[in-house]
Design goal:
The complex is a heterotrimer of chains A (370), B (518) and C (464). Chain A is built from 14 helices and 16 strands. With 370 residues, chain A is of the alpha/beta class. Chain A folds into two domains: 196 residues, 3-Layer(aba) Sandwich (Rossmann fold); 158 residues. In chain A, strand 4, helix 6 and strand 5 form a beta-alpha-beta unit. In chain C, helix 9 links the parallel strand 5 and strand 6. The chains are: A alpha/beta (370), B alpha/beta (518), C alpha/beta (464).
C-alpha cells in the first residue's frame, strides 16, 4: 500500500508567536526571528507514530527534507523521495508541486500536515482525485479536512489502509484571505472540496439497528426540501455537499463553491454575486437554502458571503431553510451554529432557535448564535 | 498447609473458549436428534401417501440440508455456545446503561414454565384461562397505581412496540377530533430513546428533535420554539439516557398542552423513580414501561420482552384490542372496541413476561419498589463518585448534580492523552469478566460509556467494576498496546470485519459462506 | 413473623442498612432523599403506592402464583384442536434446556467477543432457516409473523418505489389489521377475492387489480385457512410480469415437504417461528422472520440486524458481527427504516436448536405426519352428519369445518365439546362471515389416530 506525506514546515509558526498565519516569506522570517519552532513536523511525527507498526506493508512517498523526509526517517520509515528541495524556506508552490507529483504515483491516501493554507494548496493540485487527510498543524483551521488531532489522523489513516469501515466524504476547503485579515477585514473563501476519510460511529448505535449511510441521509434531506418547493418561488442555494445533494436529485447544475439560484423547474443563475442576487430577488418571493460550511458550524459568513445582509433582509429570515446532517450538529457538542453576516443587526435577527432539516421530514430545532 | 492468597482485583478471568465449529460442521450423516410419533397404520391405510399428491412445483424433492446430529451433540454444542456468553447471571452487568440489567428472579422463570402457562392456547375458552387473565388484569392495576394512568395495554411485545402503540393512539386521538392532518409533527429530544423518533416516523409524522442546553438538560427554549398547532405530541424520556432528570418537565408538558398536543412519557428509565414521581403528577397523558427493564423480566439475548402502554381516561377508547376486563366475577377479553387502534401483535401480550413482572412486584410491594428506586439511585451516585476518581474520565453535563438511574461518562480526556478509545476499553473489560457497550446513538458525548448499576448489585460488585475500569485506565497510560489488541481472555481474538460491508464477501448464512469463500 | 426491623431484600444487596449508610457517607449525602433533590416537589408522588401487601417469602410467592395458574386448564389436560397462527407442536426437551440457560436468558447486547455465543447461535439459526428456505439472507428474528409481513411489504414498497400491495383474501383478520396499520400511510392495501370452492386466489381478480402501482402481491402457503395455494408459480410470474415483487408468508414447519417459495418465484419470504420448538405461552411465543436472496438491493432494506460470519486474526477461528450495519439504500421516503427494538432473539436460538434436533429426516417425517393426519381428519370429519369440508384440495395442518348444515352454531358446538374435554377449532363466523358457521381445526404431529377418532365421535354425538 502506498501513502503520501506532505509537511508544510512553516504552518503554525505565526500563531505561536502572535502572528496570524504564516504565508508569505516576510512573515516566515519574522516568525523565525521571534523564535518560532516548526510545529508541523512534530504533529506529523505523532501521526506517523500510529502508522509505524504498519511500516512493513507501506510504501511512503514524501518530498525531501523538512517537507516530509526528515520526519519519515525519524519514525523509522524508508521513504521514496519526490522532487528535490534546494532552499531552506518553502513556499506554497512547493506544496502544490509535491501534491501534483503524488497524483502520478498513484497512492491510496495522502496525508498532509498544515493548516487551511496548506489544504488549499493541496486542493489546487489534487481536487478529489485522491483521498486526502489533514494532520492539524496550522493556526487557521476552518476547513473540514482535518482529523481532530494528529494521533487520530494516524488512526483513521491506519484503519482506512487496513480496509476497515472507513468512508470518504467531500469536505470543504476554506481559507482566509490573509492580506485583508491582517488589516482587520475578515473574509473567507470556499475553495472546493477534498475527499477525506472519516470513521462513522457505527458501533455506538446498538439501539438503532439500521442506521442509514450518510449519502442516503443527504438524499433524504434533499427529498424533504424538494417536496416543499413551490411554483413561482426562487431558491438561493449556498455551497456545500448537502445543498448540492438537492440539485443532484433535481438534475440541475450547481457550481462547486458559488451561490446559485433556481426555481422548481431549473437554474435561474449560477455563481452569482451579491449585486446580481439583489437584482434577481427584487419583488420575487425567494427562499435561501444554506448549510454549515467548514468545521466551526457557520451558516452565514464562511464561504457564502454573497448572501449578504441585504439579501437576507430582502428575503426575510422566515424564508431561510437550513439543511445539515445531524452529525455536523452532534460534532458541535452543544455549541450553537454561528452566523457572521458582517452586520450585527442581521446576525441578531437570525439568532435564537431555528429548525434545521436533517432528514426526510426530520428537523432539529437548534440554537443559532453570533 | 499454606493459606491460599486472597483473590486479586481485577480477577484472573478467562472466558470459556471452545473454538466451536459452526453447527453444520458437526453434522453426522444419518444421526437423529429427536424422533416423532409414527403415523398409525390405519391412517396410512385411509389416506395413503399424501405428500405424493402435492403438485410437483410445490413439493419438496430433497430434504432440507440441515445438520444431522445426535441429541447429546446438539445439547453440547449449544451449551458450549452459552458458555461463550455472559448475562446478568454471570457478570456485574452494569455496563449496558439504559437497559436496566437487573436480577431476573429464578423463581419467576420457573413459575412461568408451568404447563399451565406454556401450554395455553390464546383461543381457549375464557373459562379455562381465568388464572392468566387475572394475572394480566392485576398487573394492569399495579401499573396504573405506579404511573397514575387510568388504563394500560399489556399487548406490546417490548418497549419500542409500546412507543409505537402510543404513537398510534396519538394519531387516532387527533384524527377523532378532526385534527389528524393538521397535527403532523412529533417533538422528541436527542437523548430520549431513538425509538421515539423512529416510531413517530413510521406513523407518518415529521420529527422535530431538540438538543440539550449547555448543562445537558433538554432545552426549554428550543421546545418553546418548536411547539405549534402542528404539534401532535411530545415523546420524552425522563430521566434521559444521560441519567439526568429534567427538573422543568412540567413546563415542557405545559408548553405542549397549550398548543393542544399530547405528552407521552417514555418510562424506560423508571427504575430510579418508582414511587417517587409518576407520569400523572408530571401531567402526562400517556406513558410506557419496559417490563424487561424496570420490572425484572429477563432480556433473552434480545427478546422476548414485554411493554406496557398507559393512557389517561380520555385515550382509553383507543387502546389496542382486546383489553382485559373484570366484572366482579370473571375475567374476560373485551373485543368490542370500535375506536381501538386494532392489534399491535398477535394475541394479547407476552404472557410469561407479564406473569414474571407481576410476581416481581408481588414479592416487593410498595415499600420494596421504593427501596428498589432508592438503592438504584444510591448505587448510581456511589458509582459516579468512584468512577470519577479515575483519571481521564468525566461525567459531562449537570456538573456537581446528582444523577438518577444511570450516568453517561466520557473517556475523552484519557483518549486524547493515550490514544485509547472507549470501545477498546469495553473490549478489554471482557478480559476481566464484564463489559460495557459504548453507549449509543447519538454520538454527542465523545468516547462515551453509560453505566446503570440498578439495585441488583452490591457495594462490592460496584467496587470490583470500578477496579476493573481503573486497571484498564492505568494500562491506557502505561501499556496501551495491551488494550489495542484486546480482548485476550475472551472467546476469540480480534475479528476481521472488512467483509461485513462488502456484498461480494458478506455471509449471513452458512450456505452463503460456503459459496463465497475460496 | 415480626417485620418491624428494616427489611433486607434478597434482590437488593445494598438494602442492608449498614451498607446503605456507608455508601451514603461515601457520597456525602445524609439520606437518599437528597439524591432526588432535582425532582421538584410539585411532581412528587405523596405517600405510599397502593399496591397489594408483598409476599416477601419465596414460598409465599410460589403458593400465590401457583394458586393463580391453577385456575388455568391447559392443552396438556384437554384435547385441543386450536391453531390459527399459534400451534401445539411438540417441544423437545433440549429446546427448553437451552433457552433456560442463564447465559442466554439473561444476556442482552454485549459485543461479539464476550457474547459470541449469542452471535453464533443466531447465525446458525439464520443459516438453518436459510437451508429450509433455500435463501442466503435471513434476519435476526423480529417481533412476530404479523410484523414480519408488514415489514416485508414495506421492503417491497421501498425496493420497487411503488405504493400499492395486493393481499390474498384469506389472510387472518388480526394479521390484516396489524399489517394495514403498519404499512399505513406508505402503502395502500387491496384484498384479493378468493375462489369459494377452494380458497385460493381468484386470478381474474388479481389481473383486475394489479397495476403499475403494485409493489407486491402477497399470499400465504399454506394459507391461514390451511389449504395449499397451488397457483403459487402462476401468481408470482404474473406479479413479476407487472414489475411487482412476490411476497409469500409461510409456516417454516411445513418446509420439510413443501417447496420453499423461492422455487416458485417468491422474492421475499416471511412468517412466524413459533412452530419451531417454542411453546404456545398463551400467545407469548412468537418471533418473525424475513428472508431474501443475497442481493444488496434487498439486504439494504432489512430494518433488523443481520449477523454474518468472518475470520479472526487467528487462523481457523470464527468471528461474527453485523453485516451491512449501515444501510445504504435509496429509501427516500422512510430512511428511518421502521422501529426495531428488543424482539425475539431467544426464540431464534430455540428455533435453531429445534431444527438441529429434527434434522432433514425429522422435518420430512414431521411434514408427512402432519399432512397424513390432516388428511385423515378431513376424511373422518367429512363423514360426520351435519359436517362439510368446504375447501377441496390439499391441506397442511389446518382445514375449515363447515357446520352450517348442522343447525348449530360453532359457539354452541364448542361449548358442548368443552364439556366433553375438547377444545374445538377457532370460530371463523366473525372473521369470515360469508362462510357462515365454520371453524378452523388444527392437527399436528401430537394428535394421534385415537384423538382424531375421538373428535369425530364426539362431534357426531354433539351434532345429533
Amino acid at each position: 500500500m502506498r501513502i503520501g506525506l506532505i509537511v508544510n514546515p512553516i504552518a503554525g509558526i505565526g500563531g505561536r508567536v502572535g502572528l496570524k498565519g504564516s504565508d508569505g516569506a516576510e512573515i516566515q522570517h519574522l516568525a523565525f526571528e521571534l523564535g518560532a519552532e516548526p510545529l508541523s513536523n512534530l504533529r506529523a511525527a505523532s501521526a506517523l507514530e500510529v502508522l509505524s507498526p504498519l511500516r512493513e506493508t507501506l510504501e511512503l512517498f514524501t518530498p525531501t527534507g523538512l517537507m516530509g523526509e526528515d520526519v519519515a526517517r525519524q519514525k523509522g520509515f524508508i521513504p521514496h523521495l519526490i522532487g528535490s528541495l534546494p532552499q531552506d524556506t518553502t513556499t506554497a508552490e512547493d506544496t502544490r508541486q509535491a501534491a501534483l507529483a503524488m497524483l502520478d504515483i498513484p497512492l491510496e491516501l495522502l496525508l498532509f500536515a498544515g493548516g487551511d493554507g496548506t489544504a488549499r494548496d493541496i486542493y489546487t493540485s489534487v481536487n478529489t482525485k485522491l483521498p486526502v487527510l489533514g494532520i492539524p498543524a496550522g493556526v487557521k483551521i476552518q476547513s473540514a479536512v482535518f482529523a481532530t488531532n494528529p494521533r487520530s489522523a494516524g488512526e483513521i489513516a491506519a484503519a482506512y489502509l487496513r480496509g476497515e469501515r472507513i468512508h470518504l466524504r467531500e469536505s470543504e476547503v476554506i481559507d482566509l484571505d490573509e492580506d485583508s485579515y491582517r488589516t482587520g477585514l475578515f473574509t473567507t473563501r470556499l475553495y472546493g472540496y477534498l475527499a477525506v476519510p472519516y470513521r462513522p460511529h457505527l458501533l455506538q448505535s446498538r439501539k438503532v439497528p439500521t442506521p442509514a449511510a450518510e449519502s442516503v441521509r443527504m438524499q433524504a434531506i434533499a427529498s424533504d426540501v424538494i417536496e416543499n418547493m413551490q411554483a413561482g418561488w426562487y431558491y438561493i442555494l449556498g455551497p456545500g455537499t448537502t445543498t448540492r445533494a438537492i440539485t443532484t436529485q433535481l438534475g440541475f447544475p450547481k457550481t462547486l463553491v458559488g451561490v446559485d439560484v433556481y426555481t422548481r423547474e431549473g437554474a435561474v443563475a449560477l455563481d452569482v454575486s451579491e449585486s446580481r442576487l439583489l437584482q434577481l430577488i427584487n419583488k420575487q418571493p425567494t427562499k435561501i437554502i444554506v448549510t454549515p460550511i467548514g468545521g466551526q458550524g457557520f451558516i452565514f459568513g464562511r464561504g457564502n458571503q454573497q448572501i449578504s445582509p441585504n439579501v437576507i433582509r430582502m428575503v426575510g429570515t422566515e424564508n431561510i431553510i437550513i439543511v445539515s446532517l445531524a452529525e455536523k450538529l452532534n460534532a458541535l457538542q452543544g455549541e450553537p451554529l454561528l452566523v457572521d453576516t458582517g452586520e450585527p443587526e442581521v446576525d441578531k435577527l437570525l439568532a435564537g432557535y431555528l429548525p434545521i432539516v436533517v432528514g426526510y421530514r426530520e428537523k432539529v430545532v437548534y440554537r443559532i448564535a453570533f | 498447609m499454606k493459606a491460599v492468597s486472597p483473590k486479586p482485583l481485577p480477577r484472573r478471568f478467562h472466558q470459556a473458549s471452545w473454538d466451536e465449529p459452526v453447527i453444520f460442521e458437526l453434522s453426522q450423516p444419518g444421526a437423529r436428534g429427536v424422533l416423532i410419533p409414527p403415523v398409525e397404520p390405519a391412517i396410512l391405510q385411509e389416506v395413503g401417501n399424501v405428500t405424493a399428491t402435492i403438485p410437483e412445483s410445490l413439493r419438496r424433492t430433497t430434504p432440507p440440508p440441515l445438520p444431522e446430529m445426535s441429541q447429546v451433540h446438539v445439547l453440547r454444542h449449544f451449551a458450549r455456545l452459552s458458555q461463550e456468553n455472559l448475562g446478568v447471571d454471570l457478570n456485574i452487568d452494569i455496563g449496558q446503561g439504559t437497559c436496566t440489567m437487573k436480577y431476573s428472579p429464578k423463581v419467576n422463570d420457573q413459575l412461568a414454565r408451568s404447563p399451565k402457562l406454556t401450554d395455553l392456547h390464546p383461543l381457549q375458552d375464557e373459562s379455562t384461562v381465568q388464572g392468566i387473565l387475572e394475572v394480566m388484569w392485576r398487573l394492569e392495576q399495579m401499573l396504573k397505581e405506579i404511573s397514575g394512568m387510568d388504563r394500560f395495554s399489556l399487548q406490546p411485545g417490548a418497549g419500542s412496540a409500546a412507543i409505537y402503540t402510543n404513537m398510534a393512539m396519538v394519531r387516532a386521538y387527533h384524527k377523532s377530533r378532526g385534527e389528524g392532518d393538521q397535527r403532523n409533527q412529533v417533538i422528541t429530544t436527542i437523548f430520549s430513546h431513538p425509538s421515539n423518533a423512529a416510531c413517530a416516523k413510521v406513523g407518518g409524522y415529521e420529527i422535530i428533535t431538540i438538543y440539550p442546553d449547555p448543562d445537558g438538560y433538554p432545552d426549554l427554549s428550543a421546545l418553546q420554539a418548536s411547539v405549534s398547532e402542528h404539534t401532535a405530541a411530545l415523546f420524552i424520556t425522563n430521566p434521559e439516557d444521560t441519567g439526568i432528570f429534567n427538573p422543568r418537565i412540567e413546563q415542557f408538558v405545559t408548553a405542549v398542552h397549550e398548543v393542544g398536543g399530547l405528552c407521552v412519557y417514555d418510562q424506560a428509565n423508571a427504575n430510579g423513580i418508582l414511587g417517587i414521581t409518576r407520569a400523572r403528577e408530571a401531567g402526562f397523558d400517556m406513558c410506557h414501561f419496559n417490563l424487561h427493564k424496570t420490572f425484572s423480566t429477563p432480556h433473552g439475548c434480545g427478546g422476548p420482552a414485554a411493554g406496557a402502554s398507559g393512557v389517561s381516561a380520555a385515550l382509553a377508547m383507543f387502546l389496542p384490542t382486546p383489553t382485559v376486563e373484570f366484572d366482579g366475577h370473571r375475567y374476560y377479553l373485551d373485543f368490542d372496541r370500535p375506536h381501538s387502534i386494532g392489534k399491535i401483535r398477535p394475541w394479547y401480550g407476552v404472557a410469561q413476561n407479564i406473569l414474571k413482572a407481576y410476581a416481581w412486584i408481588m414479592s416487593l410491594g410498595a415499600d420494596g419498589l421504593r427501596e428498589v428506586a432508592e438503592i438504584a439511585v444510591l448505587n448510581n451516585n456511589y458509582l459516579l463518585k468512584k468512577v470519577l476518581e479515575i483519571h481521564g474520565v468525566s461525567a459531562p453535563y449537570a456538573k456537581g448534580r446528582r444523577r438518577i438511574e444511570q450516568v453517561r461518562y466520557s473517556w475523552e480526556q484519557l483518549s486524547s492523552e493515550t490514544g485509547v478509545h472507549s470501545e477498546e476499553i469495553g473490549y478489554r473489560a471482557a478480559d476481566f469478566g464484564t463489559h460495557y457497550w459504548t453507549s449509543h446513538h447519538p454520538y454527542i458525548v465523545p468516547e462515551p460509556m453509560t453505566l446503570e448499576p440498578t439495585e441488583s448489585y452490591s457495594q462490592a460488585d460496584l467496587d470490583e467494576y470500578v477496579a476493573i475500569l481503573k486497571h484498564i485506565a492505568d494500562e491506557a497510560y502505561n501499556s496501551p498496546a495491551t488494550i489495542h489488541t484486546a480482548p485476550h481472555n475472551s472467546t476469540c481474538h480480534r475479528i476481521n470485519q472488512a467483509s461485513y460491508d462488502n456484498p461480494d464477501e458478506w455471509a449471513i448464512t452458512w450456505r452463503a459462506y460456503k459459496r463465497k469463500v475460496k | 413473623m415480626s417485620r418491624n426491623k428494616p427489611i433486607v431484600y434478597p434482590y437488593i444487596p445494598n438494602s442492608i442498612p449498614a451498607n446503605k449508610e456507608e455508601m451514603l457517607r461515601e457520597i456525602n449525602a445524609s439520606s437518599v432523599d437528597e439524591l432526588y433533590a432535582d425532582i421538584p416537589e410539585g411532581i412528587r408522588f405523596k405517600g405510599k403506592l397502593n399496591l397489594p401487601e408483598p409476599l416477601l417469602a419465596e414460598a409465599e410467592l410460589v403458593r400465590h402464583i401457583e394458586g393463580l395458574l391453577g385456575k388455568n386448564i391447559s392443552t396438556r389436560e384437554k384435547l385441543s384442536f386450536l391453531g390459527a397462527g399459534c400451534y401445539q407442536h411438540y417441544v423437545p426437551a433440549v429446546c427448553d434446556e437451552i433457552n433456560a440457560r442463564g447465559e442466554f436468558l439473561t444476556a442482552y447486547a454485549g459485543e461479539t467477543y464476550e457474547d459470541k455465543g449469542r452471535f453464533q447461535a443466531l447465525f446458525e439459526y439464520q443459516s438453518m432457516m436459510g437451508e429450509l428456505l433455500n435463501m442466503d439472507v435471513v434476519n435476526v428474528p423480529n417481533y412476530d409473523g404479523f410484523q414480519a409481513a408488514g415489514t416485508a411489504l414495506l421492503m417491497a414498497g421501498r425496493i420497487t418505489g411503488r405504493n400499492e400491495v395486493l393481499i390474498c383474501g384469506t389472510i387472518g383478520r388480526d394479521k390484516l389489521s396489524k399489517v394495514c396499520d403498519y404499512i399505513d400511510p406508505h402503502l395502500k392495501p387491496m384484498l384479493l377475492n378468493y375462489q369459494p370452492d377452494c380458497g385460493m386466489v381468484d386470478s381474474a381478480d388479481l389481473k383486475a387489480k394489479i397495476s403499475a402501482h403494485t409493489a407486491a402481491v402477497y399470499f400465504e402457503n399454506p394459507s391461514y385457512l390451511g389449504f395449499i395455494e397451488t397457483q403459487a408459480a402462476e401468481i408470482s410470474e404474473f406479479a413479476h410480469q407487472n414489475g411487482a415483487l412476490c411476497v409469500v408468508g409461510v409456516d417454516p414447519i411445513s418446509l420439510g415437504v413443501l417447496n420453499p417459495p423461492i422455487e416458485y418465484g417468491g422474492d421475499i419470504v416471511c412468517g412466524d417461528i413459533q412452530s419451531l420448538g417454542i411453546h404456545m405461552w398463551f400467545g407469548g411465543g412468537h418471533g418473525g422472520f424475513i428472508a431474501t436472496r443475497d442481493d444488496p438491493v434487498f439486504v439494504m432494506e432489512f430494518p433488523s440486524r443481520l449477523f454474518g460470519i468472518s475470520s479472526t486474526v487467528v487462523e481457523g477461528e470464527y468471528g461474527f458481527g453485523d453485516v451491512a450495519y449501515e444501510r445504504t439504500s435509496f429509501a427516500l421516503r422512510e430512511e428511518g427504516k421502521e422501529w426495531v427494538g428488543t424482539a425475539s432473539a431467544l426464540w431464534g436460538i430455540t428455533a435453531g436448536v429445534y431444527l438441529a434436533l429434527m434434522g432433514p429426516q425429522g422435518m420430512v417425517e414431521l411434514g408427512e405426519s402432519i399432512m397424513q393426519r390432516t388428511a385423515y381428519s378431513i376424511k373422518k370429519l367429512s363423514r360426520v352428519p351435519g359436517v362439510k369440508i368446504p375447501f377441496d384440495g390439499i391441506h397442511f395442518k389446518e382445514f375449515i369445518v363447515d357446520f352450517n348444515g348442522s343447525g348449530q352454531t360453532v359457539k354452541s358446538i364448542n361449548k358442548a365439546l368443552l364439556e366433553r374435554g375438547i377444545f374445538g377449532g377457532k370460530d371463523l363466523s366473525f372473521e369470515f362471515p360469508s362462510l357462515g358457521q365454520c371453524a378452523l381445526y388444527a392437527i399436528t404431529e401430537i394428535h394421534t389416530q385415537a384423538d382424531i377418532d375421538r373428535l369425530a365421535a364426539t362431534l357426531q354425538e354433539v351434532l345429533r
